[in-house]
Specification:
The chain has 156 residues and is α+β, with helices and mostly antiparallel strands. The protein has helices spanning 14-21, 108-116, 119-138, and strands spanning 2-10, 34-39, 44-51, 54-66, 70-75, 82-92, 95-104. It has a seven-stranded antiparallel beta sheet, covered by helices on one side.
Amino acid sequence: MSTVTESVDVHVPVHMAFNQWTQVESFPHFMKGVKSVRQIDATHSHWVVNVAGTVREFDTEITEQHPNERIAWKSTSGKTEHAGVVTFHRLGDSDTRVTVQFDWEPEGLLENIGSAIGADSRQVKADALRFKTFIEERGSETGAWRSEVQTPDKRI
């Protein structure tokens, strides 16, 4: 299992950074390996990504969401299992730290080597910096979904 954690400080209010992160269909604009994301329903989406030259498809589920604080997810299909969380920390009225942490299981020799030499961390860092540019240059989010999603053990 490989764990990646990267942070970026963005010059936008915390609600704007959070709102943009809920718009998964916009991810191909700033995540290099993401080819498309289709929102299936409020908590499920279908992804097509390119990992080391290999196209993969998988589904994810948002397992926890607290507006302006955190969004957690896990994969529900596909070859590579992964799960993670994005947290949003208010640094000031117009500044937010966005931290992405996820665990994934590299598959095959190429992915294992890439993970061992930190290619996954570099990719996430580059994507986080592209997110910073994307949201700061736009000056507004492309949409918002601010519903609470409780962790499964807290659901009634």
